[in-house]
Specification:
- 3 copies of one chain form a homotrimer.
- By secondary structure, chain A is an alpha+beta fold.
- The first copy, chain A, folds into 2 domains: 140 residues, Hotdog Thioesterase (Thiol Ester Dehydrase, Chain A), CATH 3.10.129; 165 residues, Thiol Ester Dehydrase, Chain A (Roll).
- Chain A has 6 helices and 15 strands.
- Chain A is globular.
- β1 of chain A pairs parallel with β8 of chain C, so a sheet runs across the interface.
Chain lengths: 355, 355, 355
């Protein structure tokens, strides 16, 4: 009886500069994805909930939440890029170019834009730029990501490292906003009479109060919905012998929980334009309760628009303790950030906010 | 760094008689809400399951289950009305006026119709009438509700209490039934050959047999689907120091489980017309198994209709013991009802039943 | 107060040869069923995920996964056939005749085709042929099933047993393949560049690597979605006193998990045509991690088709241990199969595979 090998993901040696992956399983996003996302996160951003209001604002129908779009697009890349990842090191320049609607189909490609062997000879860093296009071949979202990947056969570094440049902060002026959308008729009560752009200032800090406890099934359902097949989220038998002995919660689920919690304070931050980057400082597990705090780190008016403007938010996710009780969430020391052991997320994003 | 306050809900002092709240986050109900409701409850009422039969009965498509409609509409009111509730004291006159279909958008308002300070000076009772309208501005459902709400600053009662009148039992003759619906062609097997109106009598008692164990994720998903953001359902970290040390299951989820269990016996009670009121006598937690028993407390023919009639049901929900084994579920003593400690729900509703 | 009996399912005496059951609650399958199925299983078979590719292959839209179709159709039969089953003994000739699309409504009937009393006088075996038709009255799937059912009143065997013939292996040449579907334009990357028909041989063995841990809510949601109302899956209070003290996972959920895991290796086995039979050798419970291994037991070209062909797969599901570590999954001894105590599923199916 012949034993047929199953695909086990790519190792460091399998990647080469300029190589392009056409990821498998293009995905049609449905109304049900949006509904399930609400059930999984409790998100209340109204553009994604009310068809009437979406249309009043010039959308053809309810657009999908760009966080959901990102998770689905990201999930497509796991099988080729990060199945053998020792660590998901970072992502940047997550740039949303096109609104998504129920019925749209995403196909995702990734190009290898950098490679760097580690001195230990056991692994290296792979840098990719991934791009999700819709059925009209329009770019929906693109991003850069770097992961540390095992070598199939350990060997000392032998190639010249190529490390791509990327922006730590996307230029707010270049970010896409939905072209025909207009928000002048927005009524305050749509989004619970919350802050508008002019009410907040750079340096403002918002603790979003509510907490969400992660159930085992919640994050499993979410991660399977995104067809993200990283083993660490699903296989308890294998995880029994891992460092924590538990399944890890997909970092994207934490992002979505924090964003959902942010509604309470940032309910008028209606449209995610970009993610500059994120750090998942500590792992999360089922049973953890997630809290969220946001810092306003930048704001920009958009020339010729008086209905909306851009806000840059640092979204901090904390587990099992209220930011109110904690001495610090992070410390900045000589350019180095030290995180509290309860801090699970430090995300930097640009969002369009109602004026 | 300025600390921006997040909305923390209204306190007793924030309410005034005649005040109207336009609740945030209008909600488009989709086919996926209906499907997810099936997955969350196991409900089998066939009008909400089979497009073919719904159309045969004169509906444009499968109507949404009014229990689901109620939970979504109710969820909208939590943020303004009951975020600081010490207790959800009661609801009444839940009157369904208009069938809902996938694609309909609900917007909900509440008017303060009563206020009564408690003698302890710490809190008071707020009475509201809430109304959900669809995108055509037609009333879908309205109801009365009263909650005990904290005062921001304790002070002795100083105002004349206003307590609204309400009906403990809606007049069956005034209840709305779907205008073009007709059920003469209904075939017995559609709903598992169950009792019809003429088979049951006032005083009949039906134990529905099946049991449903609540998983932590089930009730969390349901309550997030309804965008009900009461903290007690979601935040285990905060609940650790609460009386029970556990997250509470949203009472509406118990109602839906009991209604789903009721199919086995009341499968021909096809259309919820009204809820007269309900008592959530004891809390439910993940891990509890719910059983249900129904008493027929009234029945009325509808003049000019020989296909359907009205039945008033007292639906009793019990946890972790079978009503068959229990000496009593409740006791009536000098006009006072005492509930068994395992009784979690006592709901009084009017339902349209096939003749 | 009259106690009205609720339907408690049929007992052995309630069945007679040739009897036909029109099962209750016909069911419209929606896009949301497909999406939820993805979230529950993590399945990635691309025909059911990407509208663009489904259309490119000649489908009107994404067809539903036949495993999902089967679970929904099967669920309909439980109330009449197996509510009092002592054991679900087997099924065979599961034959998919017609593709299903979102919006289709399934109605299911079963005919009693065999009866055999057991010598213990306490129960007997009921054989039924079940058929699910769509709203155009076209057969979608039919199958044979036999269950051991309690007698209402024990009595010694008194009737001549009738045991129907059935095929242990459906004839590959008679199986339906979607009539207008064509796969010549399929691009390798759609399904992660996996094996095609000509890459695999009879006798090949594929261990699919990934593992999926079952959460309590996962299988409850799935089984309720299928409206399968067997008590053993839902009622922990009743199961406390059962042999295992735990709720049993619906065998169909295990089938779906194994099929989802099989993507990794059999991603080009795109269309389930038939299930020859299955053995659920050991029960599964929440907390179990499921692994899967497939054996190729037959393959057939389809005359006049060079884009697709037929493969017969023996899909083996294992819990809580990797097939890689196990000495054996099953043993064949003098025509008798002995299963490892960790083996939970042995399923024999015909699938259409890309050439």
């Amino acid at each position: 009886m012949r034993q047929l090998e199953t695909p086990q993901g790519n190792y460091f040696e399998d990647f080469s500069l300029g190589q392009v992956f056409h990821h498998g399983v293009p995905r049609t996003i449905t109304e049900a994805d949006a509904t399930l996302y609400t059930a999984l996160t409790g998100s209340r951003y109204v553009l994604h909930c009310a068809d009437t209001i979406a249309k009043e604002c010039g959308f053809q129908s309810m657009p999908l939440d760009n966080f959901l779009v990102f998770h689905i697009a990201f999930g497509k890349t796991v099988n080729d890029i990060s199945l053998n990842a020792v660590a998901n090191l970072g992502y940047a320049e997550v740039d949303f170019k096109q609104a998504c609607f129920a019925g749209d189909t995403l196909a995702v490609t990734s190009e290898v834009i950098g490679l760097k062997e580690n001195s230990n000879g056991k692994n290296g860093v792979v840098f990719v730029r991934s791009t999700a296009v819709n059925q009209k071949d329009l770019t929906v979202v693109s991003w850069i990501r770097w992961v540390m990947v095992e070598k199939k056969i350990p060997h000392p570094p032998s190639m010249t490292p190529v490390i791509p440049d990327y922006l730590g902060n996307l230029n707010a002026e270049n970010l896409a906003i939905p072209p025909n959308a207009h928000f002048s008729d927005w009524r305050d009560h749509y989004s619970d009479n919350q802050y508008r752009f002019d009410d907040i200032e750079i340096g403002d800090n918002i603790f979003h109060r509510d907490g969400l406890t992660i159930n085992q099934s919640d994050h499993s359902l979410a991660t399977r919905l995104y067809q993200n097949n990283a083993r660490v989220h699903f296989d308890q038998h294998a995880m029994n012998t891992s460092r924590h002995g538990k399944r890890l919660v997909y970092g994207g689920h934490i992002i979505s929980l924090c964003r959902a919690l942010s509604y309470n304070g940032l309910g008028n931050a209606v449209w995610l334009c970009a993610i500059n980057g994120g750090t998942h400082a500590n792992p999360s597990f089922a049973g953890d309760t997630i809290y969220c705090q946001s810092e306003i780190i930048d704001k920009r008016v958009i020339p010729s628009r008086d209905d909306v403007a851009m806000v840059r938010v640092r979204m901090l996710g904390v587990k099992n303790d209220s930011p109110d009780n904690m001495e610090f969430l992070y410390r900045q020391d000589a350019g180095r950030t030290t995180y509290h052991t309860n801090l699970v997320l430090d995300l930097d994003y640009w969002v369009m906010m109602l004026r």
